[in-house]
Amino acid sequence: MSDNHQPNDPMRIALEKGIEETAKIAKDYLDKLIVPGLEQSGGLIGDTVAFWRFKNKVNLILKAKAFLEKKGIEPKRLLPKVVAPLLEAGSLEEEADMKNRWAALLASAAEKPEKVPPAFPKILSEISSIEARILEWMTDRVHKQIGWIATFNEIQEVFKIATWEYELLMGNLVRLNLCRASQSSYLMGDESSSSTEWFSYQRVEFTRLGYAFVGACRFSD
Predict the structure, then answer these.
(1) pLDDT digits 0-9 by tens, 172-209
(2) For 71-82, how does the pLDDT look when each residue is reduced to its tens digit (9 = 90+)?
(3) 75 within 8 A of 110, measured Cβ to Cβ
(4) What single string gives the DSSP state of each residue in the chain?
């Protein structure tokens, strides 16, 4: 906001008032999620974080609140070791679809705390939007009884990604144990025709961890 605004600028006052009221709603709802005695006076919101992170935290909480209220679910209290990393990591997100997944993860935790172990926020913070979409696609294949295994060609055709990008994405998903290599090989050469070898996941299997993780991040389904 421009520094030319006067201290009593009506527009600025209205904006700040709106932010305060929205933050109060988020803080009141956050109090429902945290075990009594551990809330530390709203410290999870963080008074010293950058404004855009603060706004993201508020929106994340309110979106989770909307998810739960739409289903008529009263939230259960959560330990800070789940809520704190979820809010901190979620506040860094800029992509709309990933913001929805963070809010869904919070809503899932508030509905059934046992569905969201402390590792899930860390996992979500370490995957990209396209990786999340690949996992959701694999979940849909399981629901349609197509199977738990997908091939390199199937994934490449659906998501229109280059071989090198597929290698990076799948390497990360395997590292996180969301998928595992079902068949692999070494390929020779790269796009510049240099003499190079790299590991290729020809067939990948969706894991039970990956399936549970996607379910926790798709609360609105």
Answers:
(1) 999 999 999 875 554 444 444 444 445 578 889 999 99
(2) 898 888 888 888
(3) yes
(4) --TTS-TT-HHHHHHHHHHHHHHHHHHHHHHHHB-TT-SGGGTTT-TTS-HHHHHHHHHHHHHHHHHHHHTTPPPPPB-HHHHHHHHHHHTT---HHHHHHHHHHHHHHHH-GGGS-THHHHHHHTS-HHHHHHHHHHHHHHHTTS-SEEEHHHHHHHHT--HHHHHHHHHHHHHTTSEEEEEEEEEE--TT--S-EEEEEEEEEE-HHHHHHHHHT-TT-
The two structure tokens encoding residue 158:
């659906």
Give the burial string for 88-104 (b: 16+ CB within 10 Å, else e). bbbbebeeeebbbbbbb
